What does this fold into?
Amino acid sequence: MIRLVLLVTFVFLTTIPSAHANGSDPEFNAIFQEMQKEFKKISAYYAPKIKEKESRIQDMTAKLYEAKEAEAKINFLIQKDILKEEILLLKKEEMQDLSKIRYLKGLQIIRLLYEKVLSLDHHFASVRTFSEINKLSNPNQYPEYEKLKELVKNKKDKKAGFDLTSILGTNTIVSVVQTFSNLMVSSLSKEEKDKEIANIECILDFTLRMQNDLNTIYFETAFLQKSNDKMRADIETLFKDYTKPIGYANTLESCRTSDDWDAVRQKTNDYLANLKTQQGPQLYTSQVNIIFPIDRLLQFIAQYNNFIDQGGKFYEKFKIILNSYENEKQCETKLPLEYKKLKDDIDVAINKFNMAYRPVEVNGSKMKEILYGINEFE
It folds into this structure.
């Protein structure tokens, strides 16, 4: 059992987030620094006790070889066995203390990750909606174009012009074709036609070139939002499974809303205190129950990291798309303010994905230092 716990300790410490050279989340970093201090404190408490008993075993072994009488030899053997049992008990208590710290720190990590996921929820709820994207990509939403349509409607040739059905009228391309066709056969002079076209050329150029790209931004943002919804559901399930062994029944959302973290800690303390009264298979099962939820946490950290990496790349792509409008300079004064606002929103999102939501670093040397800082390899 001790080997199993040591193995899981090694895996946890060498795969959880690290502080690296270009900076890490200060809240996560604080958790790991606290964990390092607590691990070292435990090691400083148990190591001398274990070492003292191992030294006494060596003395007993020497005396055993020197003893001549059978009764003395038996007495030394009994004392050695007692000392060995005491060492096993100390190591068992040490592993339980380490398990408690890892488990509680894991809960703190879940708590922080949940806050980040909720922040992402808020972020996606505040991004451009489809109706706002539609305003940018649909010329019918621009007053200048509506003015031209009304003018053409009043000036069109009744015989040569044509009207669209209610369905085709909502199609951007067909609507533009109709407007220009009716403009060409309208009673407006050539100068008037040239003036009207010049007045809307930037609007039409922008909307027709960027319509598909703007829709791509909307649909891919919707995809990211759905992915974040799944991530929120997954971390809530993780918390349920993580706290099931200690008998905590409230949901993560409920725990957060009611600030019930002290109750979780108390449940953990009670569970670990009960371990000291258990033996054999029951003890093994109870220990495994709080060791292996950490593996689920590590899997979620990997899932979170992948999502943040993906989200950052998506927004970098959106930035490239919005900057790709080749006539932006010539049409700068005619472009809608929402276009600049969308570009600003994406810059903010990129910054958030790089800073506020940044991935939790894994496989870092910092955690290896923590591991080696608490064991006998120093």
Q: What stands out?
A: The chain has a mean pLDDT of 80. The first helix runs from residue 2 to 15.
